[in-house]
Amino acid sequence: MRAPAEMKCAVELLVPWPRGHLGRWCARRRCSTVPAALTAAILRQHGQAKPTYELHEHRQYPPPSRWSSLLNVLGKLVVWKSSSSASARHRAPSTPSPSSATQQPPLQPPQQEPCEYLRGFLTIETERRIRANDREFNAQFHYANNYIKTSKYSVLTFLPLNLFEQFQRLANFYFLCLLVLQMIPAISSLTPVTTAVPLIGVLALTAVKDAYDDYQRHVSDSQVNNRKSLTLRNGKLVEDKWAQVQVGDVIRMENDQFVAADMLLLSTSEPNGLCYIETAELDGETNLKCRQCLLETAEMGQDDARIGAFNGEILCETPNNLLNKFEGVLTWQGKSYALDNDKVVLRGCVLRNTQWCYGMVIFAGKDTKLMQNSGKTKFKRTSIDRLLNFIIIGIVFFLLSMCLFCTIACGFWETITGRHFQIYLPWDKLVPTDPTEGATVIALLVFFSYAIVLNTVVPISLYVSVEVIRFVQSFLINWDEHMYHEKSGTSAKARTTTLNEELGQIEYIFSDKTGTLTQNIMTFNKCSIGEKCYGDIIDEQTGEVLELAEGTVPIDFSANPDYEPEFKFYDKSLLEAVRRKDETVHSFFKLLALCHTVMPDEKSGRLEYQAQSPDEAALVSAARNFGFVFKERSPNSITIDVMGEREVYELLCILDFNNVRKRMSVILRKDGKLRLFCKGADNVIYERLKNNSDSRKIKTQDHLNKFAGEGLRTLCLAVRDLDDDFFNDWKNRHQAAALSLDNRDEKLDAIYEEIEKDMELLGATAIEDKLQDGVPQAISKLAQAGIKIWVLTGDKQETAINIGYSCQLLTDDMAEVFIVDAHTFEEVELQLGKLKDAIGNLEKSDGVNGGPTAVSVVTFSESDYQHGCSVEEPEISGGIALVINGHSLVHALHPKLEKLFLEAASQCKSVICCRVTPLQKAMVVELIKKNKHAVTLAIGDGANDVSMIKAAHIGVGISGQEGMQAVLASDYSLPQFRFLERLLLVHGRWSYFRMCKFLRYFFYKNFAFTLCHFWFAFFCGFSAQTLFDPIFISFYNLFYTALPVMSLGVFDQDVNDKNSLSYPKLYTPGHQDLLFNKKEFLKSAMHGFFTSCILFLVPYGTYLDGVSPKGHALSDHMLFGSVVATILIIVVTAQIALDTAYWTWWSHFTIWGSLCIYFAFTFITNYVFGGSYVGSLSKAMIEPTFWFTTILTVTLLIVPVLAWRFYFVDVKPTLSDRVRLKQRLESLRSRQSQDILRTPSARRTRRSIRSGYAFAHQEGFGRLITSGKIMRKIPRPNTDFSFPLSFGSTIGASLSPRKPVVATSSSSSAGAFNNLAPPEIPGGFNEQS
C-alpha cells in the first residue's frame, strides 16, 4: 500500500516494535523480505488485526529491539527468493522525473536483479544514510574512508605472515621438522647445517621476492591515496589527500581529473547540470558518457558558501558492484528527490569537457564500485607446484616406509646378532641392558636416524633450484627483443617469478576487447560514392590494387586550415573529385558533416569533437579533412564550412537511432529547400530507396560486399528532397503521434516510415576499427595450439561481433554463430538448449560425413605425419561460435543453468561475452577454473579487467591507454596483444618443457643417490651408517650436480623459437600434463631405483674381499664409498648430457666442469682440510679394478637408455622429434628453411556483415541538442533562426547488425540518456518548423 501521490513524506509500516534498519526497509518493500505469515503472527501477538500506516518525516531511530533483530535474521535467511519470483524481481522500476519533487519512493533492495547469481561476492546490508557536510553525523555509521589498500603486508606483519605462507608449502614444513630432528645428537648422524643453510636460503630468497612485490603495491597505493582533491570545509575549499576524503564530503573536480570517490553530482559548469565522463577504467569504453545533476542542486553553481551550507540527506543502497545501477532518495528542504545512476559519477571515471563540477561523496575507498569489482589478490600456484606437493606426500610415505623397514630390521639384527658385539660396538648409556628392550630402543632411534640419512630423496635444493630457474626464466622474458614495442618504448615484463611454466599449459584465454585486441581507433578507410569505389591504390600500368606499405605517401591535406595531421587517406582521386565540385561527392560529405549528434568544442584554439563513439567521430573527421568542416550547432541550426565557405542549415528534426530502425536521419532547410539526410544499415536503407536507382544499388552492393569482406564496418548514405506541404502535414501527424498515450512507439515508427522512403542512394562508408598489429595472426596461432579464446567485453554485441570477424575469432567457415540475448531465466535456458542441440547435430553430421579425426600430439602414425608435421598445416575450420549478452549471462551463471551454459560454451570454437561487468568477467573465469580444471589466462588493459586478471591462473596486463591498473594487478605485462603468441608458444612452452625435464632428472639423480644408503643398510646392520663421506652428502646437490641441472632448466630447448611459432601444435602436450605427471615421476623414480641397484651391487661384487696386486685390501668402507660416489657422479653427468637437447658453451662448462669440480673438491677437502676419507679415492684410482668397474657400471646404465630413446625416436617419433630432425637438417645444409607456416590474412574475405558505426554507438545527443539543454549559448545574432521550444527526440538503444544465426527474444534496451530531461515529444522536432 502506498500513500497518496500528493503527500511529500515517506510512508512506513507501523508495527509495535521500534524501527531498526531492517524494519524500515521491510516497510518500504511492503514487507517483501519478511514472510507474510510471520508478519501476521507478530501483529496478532501485539493485538493488531492488520498493519496500519502513518506519515512522518525522516528521523533518528532507537537501536533495534529483539523483534527487529529477529526480522533481521529471518530477512537474511530468505533474501535469496525462489525462482518463481524471478519475473517480478527483474521488472524495471519506474523512475520519477528527476527535476520534480516527489514523494519518497519505495527503495529497491540493492543488487536486487543479479544478487541471486552474484553469491559470494556481495554483502547483505539494509541501507545507507548520509548527510552532506556533516562528518559528525556520518561518523556514527562507521563508513569506510577513502583510503585503499591492495598490499598484503606491513612492516610488522611481513615476517610472521610471510613465514606462515611459506610454511604452507609442504616441503618447507617438512625440512623444518627435519632440521629439528638433526639438532638431536642421539639420532642424527649429520650436522644440522646441511639442512639449515638451504632452508634459510630458500625462505630468504622467497621473502625478498615477496617483499619487493608488495613494496610495488605499497608504492601504487601511496600514489593513489596521496592524490590531491579540493574538499569543502566550512564553506571554503581546502586541498586534501584522497585518503582523507570521507563519506558526506563535498568535492570540487576540474576537467581531466580522476574522480576520487563515488559521488552524487550537485552542480556543474555545463548547461542544465550536465557533465561528461570517460569510464575507461570501469568498463573499458573510451567514448564519453553524460551525467546530469538535479536541477534544484544545479542552481547552487560554484558558490562555495551555498554548497558548503548544503545539508541534504541521502538514503540509498549499500555498497555493491553493479556499475550501471544506483537507487536512492535525496531529502532536502522538506522535499524528496529520486536518485538514479545518471546522477552519480564513480571513482575511476575521468571528467571530460566539463570545466568543473561539485559532488557529494556517497561511497569511499573499498566501498566504491571500482574497488568492489577489483576482486582480492590471490596466492597463485602452478599446477606443477600442486603436483609436487602431492608427490612429496607420496615420497614422505615412501621414506617412512623405508625407515620403518630399517627399524624392524635393526630390531631383529640387534636382538639376534648385535648384542653379541657390544665389546666392539657398545650400546649407548641410554639403552637398557636387557637385549630385547635394548634392541627395541635402538630400533626406535634408528627410525629417526634413517629419516635424516634418507631425507635427500627430497632435498631442499630442489626448491632452491626451482626458484632460481624461474627467476632466470623471468629475466629471459624481460630481455626478449622480439617482445619490445619500439613505438611505445615498452617491453614484456614478468612481474612474478612463480608462474613461468604455467604459461606452457594454458587452455583458455579470456581477453578484453577494447585496447587489448583493438587500438580503439576508428579510421575512415574506404567509401563508395556514385557507383565508384575510393580508397584503394591502383597501379596505373597494370590496373591492380596495391597493398599499403610503410613507404606509401598519404594525401597532403595541409591546404585545409582545419585538417588533422593524424588523418591518413591514400586515394587522391577522391580529393580531386571534391576539388572539381562533383555534386554527388559534395552531397556525400555534406551528409557526413550534417547527419550526426557530435558536439564541437574548442581547446587551445583547435577545433575538437565530442562524440558518443569513435565511429561517429571518424566520419565527421573524414568530412572535415576533405573540406566539409562541422563548425558549430545550436538547438535549431548546424553550421559547416564547405571548401572555406560558411553554410548554415536550419535543423528541423532529428530522427535518432534505435535498435529497430537501424538508421538515423536529420531534416534540414537551407535557402528554402528541405532535405532529409539519412544513414544506416544497407538492408534498411535499400528497402527505402527509389525504384529507379537499380544500377547504383547493384554497384554499391558489390562495394559493400568487398568492404565487409575486408572486415570494415559499413554504412549506407541516402538523401531525399521534401516539399513544404508534405513536411508540414507530416509534422502535424508526427506531433499527434508523439503526444499519444497508447502505442506511442509503434505510431512514431509508422510516422518515421512515411518520410524515410523514396530516398536517393549516395554511397557507402567503410570504417576500420583498427586492430592492434598482428592480432589475427596471433589468435590463429593460439587456436591452432589448442587454446580456446573467449572475449569478455563491456562493449555492445554488434561491436564485439565485428571485431570477432576482424581478428579471425569468428570466420565464415563456422557452421553457425549463436546469439543468446534473452532477458528471462526461461528464455536463456531455452536458447542454451537450442545451442546444445545444434552442437550435437553438428557432431553427428561430422561423424556421418567423415569429419576430421583427433590427432595425437605426443605420437603420430605415418598417416598422421602430414597432419602433424606438414609445412602447410590446415587452418582450423568449422565449429560453432557463441555470442552472449551480459543480461543473459546473469541467468546463465545461475546455479541451475551454469552447467548447461558450461557444457554448451566449452564445446564452441569461440565465445564472445558482451556487455559484461568486471565482476561477471571474473565469475566466468572462476566457472571454467572450478568445473573444467583447466589452466586459464586473462588479458586486459583497464581497471575493469583487474578482477578477471586476479581470478585467472595467470593475469596479463596490456600497458595501453587505459592506465596501469591492469598491469599492476597482473603477473605479466605486454605492450601488445600479439606478443602473447610468443609469450605462450615460445617462452611458455620452453619454460614448461625445461621445468618438466629438470624435475624428471632431479628426482632420478636423487633416488639414485639416496637409495645407495638403503642398500648399504643391509650390510651395516641397519645402523644408519652412511655409505658416503658426509662432505659428499652435503655437496652432492649443492655443487656436484647443481649447475648442470640448472643449466638444463634455464637454457634447454627441443626446437628453436622460429619452429615453436611455426608449429603451434608443439604446445599441446602441456594441456594434458604429458611431460611431467605422476606416471613420469614414477618412471624417473624407477630409473633412479634401477641406477642405485647397479651402482651399489656392481662395485660391491667387485670390491668384496678385493685385494690389489700388491696385496693391499680394497674392501674397506671408505674406499668402497668413494668408488660408488665417483661412479655416481659420472653416471648422472652422462645422463644429463644425454638429456640436453640444446648445447651452448654454458652447457659444456657446467656439465664437464661439474666433473672437474667433483675431483677438485674431493682432493681439496681430504688433503687440504684433512677429511676422514683422505686417500680413499686416490688409492682406488691407481688400480685397474676401479676403471674396469667404472666402465662396466656406466655401460650397464647408459646403453639401455640410449637404446630405448633411439627406438622411440625412430619408430614412434613425436612431433617435437620430427621438427627437431628437420631443424638439424636445415642446420647441416647451412640455409634457412623457406617453409613457413601460412598465417591468415588480416584482410581475409568473410561473409557480408553490415555493421556501421551506428550499431556500435550509444544513443546520440539528439534530444539534448534539440532541447537546447546541451548548449552553452544560443545561436549567434546574425543567423535567421531563433531559439525555439523543443519537443525532443526519441532516443533509442544502439542498433544491431544482421545476425548470422539468432536464437533470440530480445527487446530494445533502455538508452544511456533516459531521464536526463523532462518528457518531450520524441523525434527531435522543433516547434518553429
UniProtKB/TrEMBL annotation:
<keyword id="KW-0812">Transmembrane</keyword>
<dbReference type="InterPro" id="IPR001757">
    <property type="entry name" value="P_typ_ATPase"/>
</dbReference>
<dbReference type="InterPro" id="IPR023298">
    <property type="entry name" value="ATPase_P-typ_TM_dom_sf"/>
</dbReference>
<feature type="binding site">
    <location>
        <position position="793"/>
    </location>
    <ligand>
        <name>ATP</name>
    </ligand>
</feature>
<feature type="binding site">
    <location>
        <position position="512"/>
    </location>
    <ligand>
        <name>Mg(2+)</name>
    </ligand>
</feature>
<dbReference type="InterPro" id="IPR032630">
    <property type="entry name" value="P_typ_ATPase_c"/>
</dbReference>
<feature type="transmembrane region" description="Helical">
    <location>
        <begin position="1081"/>
        <end position="1098"/>
    </location>
</feature>
<feature type="binding site">
    <location>
        <position position="514"/>
    </location>
    <ligand>
        <name>ATP</name>
    </ligand>
</feature>
<feature type="region of interest" description="Disordered">
    <location>
        <begin position="1299"/>
        <end position="1329"/>
    </location>
</feature>
<dbReference type="GO" id="GO:0005886">
    <property type="term" value="C:plasma membrane"/>
</dbReference>
<dbReference type="GO" id="GO:0005802">
    <property type="term" value="C:trans-Golgi network"/>
</dbReference>
<feature type="binding site">
    <location>
        <position position="514"/>
    </location>
    <ligand>
        <name>Mg(2+)</name>
    </ligand>
</feature>
<dbReference type="InterPro" id="IPR036412">
    <property type="entry name" value="HAD-like_sf"/>
</dbReference>
<keyword id="KW-0472">Membrane</keyword>
<feature type="binding site">
    <location>
        <position position="941"/>
    </location>
    <ligand>
        <name>Mg(2+)</name>
    </ligand>
</feature>
<dbReference type="GO" id="GO:0005524">
    <property type="term" value="F:ATP binding"/>
</dbReference>
<feature type="transmembrane region" description="Helical">
    <location>
        <begin position="1150"/>
        <end position="1174"/>
    </location>
</feature>
<feature type="binding site">
    <location>
        <position position="713"/>
    </location>
    <ligand>
        <name>ATP</name>
    </ligand>
</feature>
<dbReference type="InterPro" id="IPR032631">
    <property type="entry name" value="P-type_ATPase_N"/>
</dbReference>
<keyword id="KW-0460">Magnesium</keyword>
<dbReference type="GO" id="GO:0016887">
    <property type="term" value="F:ATP hydrolysis activity"/>
</dbReference>
<feature type="transmembrane region" description="Helical">
    <location>
        <begin position="193"/>
        <end position="212"/>
    </location>
</feature>
<dbReference type="GO" id="GO:0045332">
    <property type="term" value="P:phospholipid translocation"/>
</dbReference>
<feature type="transmembrane region" description="Helical">
    <location>
        <begin position="1030"/>
        <end position="1051"/>
    </location>
</feature>
<feature type="binding site">
    <location>
        <position position="657"/>
    </location>
    <ligand>
        <name>ATP</name>
    </ligand>
</feature>
<protein>
    <recommendedName>
        <fullName>Phospholipid-transporting ATPase</fullName>
        <ecNumber>7.6.2.1</ecNumber>
    </recommendedName>
</protein>
<feature type="binding site">
    <location>
        <position position="794"/>
    </location>
    <ligand>
        <name>ATP</name>
    </ligand>
</feature>
<dbReference type="InterPro" id="IPR006539">
    <property type="entry name" value="P-type_ATPase_IV"/>
</dbReference>
<dbReference type="GO" id="GO:0000287">
    <property type="term" value="F:magnesium ion binding"/>
</dbReference>
<feature type="transmembrane region" description="Helical">
    <location>
        <begin position="387"/>
        <end position="416"/>
    </location>
</feature>
<dbReference type="InterPro" id="IPR044492">
    <property type="entry name" value="P_typ_ATPase_HD_dom"/>
</dbReference>
<dbReference type="GO" id="GO:0007030">
    <property type="term" value="P:Golgi organization"/>
</dbReference>
<keyword id="KW-0067">ATP-binding</keyword>
<feature type="compositionally biased region" description="Low complexity">
    <location>
        <begin position="88"/>
        <end position="105"/>
    </location>
</feature>
<feature type="binding site">
    <location>
        <position position="513"/>
    </location>
    <ligand>
        <name>ATP</name>
    </ligand>
</feature>
<feature type="transmembrane region" description="Helical">
    <location>
        <begin position="1118"/>
        <end position="1138"/>
    </location>
</feature>
<feature type="active site" description="4-aspartylphosphate intermediate">
    <location>
        <position position="512"/>
    </location>
</feature>
<feature type="binding site">
    <location>
        <position position="795"/>
    </location>
    <ligand>
        <name>ATP</name>
    </ligand>
</feature>
<feature type="binding site">
    <location>
        <position position="915"/>
    </location>
    <ligand>
        <name>ATP</name>
    </ligand>
</feature>
<keyword id="KW-0547">Nucleotide-binding</keyword>
<feature type="binding site">
    <location>
        <position position="945"/>
    </location>
    <ligand>
        <name>Mg(2+)</name>
    </ligand>
</feature>
<feature type="binding site">
    <location>
        <position position="921"/>
    </location>
    <ligand>
        <name>ATP</name>
    </ligand>
</feature>
